[in-house]
Amino acid sequence: MQLSTETSPQTHLQSYLEGGTEMGALIRSYDWSGTALGAPDQWSQSLLTTIGIVLKSRFPMCLWWGTELIQFYNDAYRPSLGNEGKHPKALGQRAEECWPEIWPVIKPLIDQVLSGGESTWSEDQLIPIYRNNRIENVYWTFSYSKVNDTSGKPVGVLVICSETTDKVNTMAKIEKTITEQIIARKKVEQAEEMLRLSIEAANVGTWHMDVATRKFIASTRMKELYGYYPDEEVSYDDVLNRIPEEYRNKVRLAVEQAIASGESYSIEHPVTGYHDQTPRWVRALGKLYPGTSDHTAHFSGLTLDITEQKRDEMRKNDFIGMVSHELKTPLTSLNGYLQLLIARMRKTEDTFISTSLEKAYVQVKKMSTMINGFLNISRLESGKIHLDMEIFDLDQLIREIIEETKPTLQHHHLSLSPCLPVSVYADREKIGSVISNLLSNSIKYSPKGKIIEISCITHDGVAEVRVRDEGMGIKPQAIEKLFERFYRVETKHTQNISGFGIGLYLCSEILLHHGGSIWVESEIGVGSTFHFSLPLAT
């Protein structure tokens, strides 16, 4: 191949090499006299024009020119080379010298183009390259096109490319996730149900929504789960309207929050089929995929039918509720008799019996609290929890709970910081159980700590209650799961502490139903501070 000998006037040379930021400056300052191309004032009109196009483009481009395929590239292509890799040495290098690791792959494509063949097109092709001090597996979508001189003779190859590694890896992860879910479900089911469950797992509903336009695309299985026919057009609002009103706003807010934050979306909710009116429970999982130069931002995911699982949970909750209710009645009677006996024995001098009765009373009260916890869980998860909302003084409730707790203390001292009158609109009994639970936990998990501080402040339209102890503290990884149902921190220090891991879960759910929140700050060996907030009464 012979280089074209045409040249451009010196006065126009700089205008062709303008453009770009980093790469424009590097090309202008590079000593090209040591290459086969010679100094820029000797370059052909075709080369100058093509370099000008490359530098001004915001799409990744690379140019190989002449018999030695001397290399140029623009700012958009620069990130593909990574850090501490081929850049900036790649500028002005021969293509074969720059790309030895992939030369056997790209050399036939270059020859095809330069021999007068058609332009090439490769999509999501794995081409490992050296960058960031190592060989990386990188996927590309790219095209090779010839560049002719003014006589029509091929003198260069223009490469237009886009790295698609993230897209390929994301699709692989989604496929892996679905596969793992199918495998997991197969393992836990009996042999006679394996075929049925694998078919259900394969029938996953999928959906895709354009974030800007809210155009919604649903798969056939997705439409089926919401009671629509396969050939019907289904919008985002159509799907939301199949969700009962008491769950609809929660789902809508969860979607908007996931889009705004970029965090994963995961929620369970009931639906009522549009045509068949069939009630179902589904679990939806989704993720925001930010916009790129090729695609607008979209929110996509899948939906699973969990109706049978929910029915099992409801039957379990009904059973727990029934048993808890039946146990509560005799305990209430026993509690009453113990109080009567304690009152009478205090008039006698038999301190042993009096002390024993008081200890029995404390244990009965603990049992009642535990049973009430299971009963509340049953109501929460079956959607039957009832809130008796009223306006009351939160500071007064805190003082009452402290007075109720004091008789059970042996080694601790409760300290209430000055708390101004604070009115909230909430269920007084249930908020009282939240405070009582936090105090009980502080006592149990700070065996060597003496002081437990309670405080209450107001800010930004909410009341915030804080309970601080001098206990053993909680590890960061445990804090993430602390408010999950039946979760307990398992350490050698907590082995002899009773509990089922339902107290903090109940606190979290009660506050969630009130529009409040709960969180904790903790340091190992120093102690923990639990916070919860409630909207102020208006």
In brief, what are we looking at here?
The chain has helices at 10-17, 22-29, 45-56, 95-98, 103-114, 165-188, 194-202, 220-225, 236-241, 245-261, 307-345, 351-381, 394-405, 428-444, 476-479, 503-513, and strands spanning 61-65, 70-73, 120-126, 129-131, 134-136, 139-148, 154-163, 205-210, 216-218, 265-272, 279-289, 298-305, 389-393, 413-416, 423-427, 451-459, 462-468, 517-523, 527-535.
What is this structure's SSE topology?
Blueprint: H1 10-17, H2 22-29, H3 45-56, E1 61-65, E2 70-73, H4 95-98, H5 103-114, E3 120-126, E4 129-131, E5 134-136, E6 139-148, E7 154-163, H6 165-188, H7 194-202, E8 205-210, E9 216-218, H8 220-225, H9 236-241, H10 245-261, E10 265-272, E11 279-289, E12 298-305, H11 307-345, H12 351-381, E13 389-393, H13 394-405, E14 413-416, E15 423-427, H14 428-444, E16 451-459, E17 462-468, H15 476-479, H16 503-513, E18 517-523, E19 527-535
Parallel strand pairs: 14-16
Antiparallel strand pairs: 1-2, 1-7, 3-6, 4-5, 6-7, 8-9, 8-12, 10-11, 11-12, 13-15, 16-17, 17-19, 18-19
What is the top-level CATH class of the largest domain?
A: Alpha Beta
Per DSSP E runs of 2 or more residues, the count of β-strands stands at 19
Query: Residue ranges: pLDDT <50 for 5 or more in a row?
Result: 1-11
Strand fraction: 15-25%
Helix percent band: 40-55%
Compute the CA-based radius of gyration.
Answer: 35 Å
Structural domain tally: 4
Shape: elongated
Instruction: Give the class from helix and strand content and strand pairing.
Output: alpha+beta
Instruction: Kindly report the name of the CATH homologous superfamily of the largest domain.
Output: PAS domain
Mind telling me which CATH architecture of the largest domain this is?
2-Layer Sandwich
- Summarize model confidence as the mean pLDDT: 82
In the sheet with the most strands, the strands line up as 2-1-7-6-3
Biggest beta sheet summary: 5 strands, antiparallel
CATH fold description of the largest domain: Beta-Lactamase
Number of helices: 16
Distance from N terminus to C terminus (CA atoms, Å) equals 84 Å
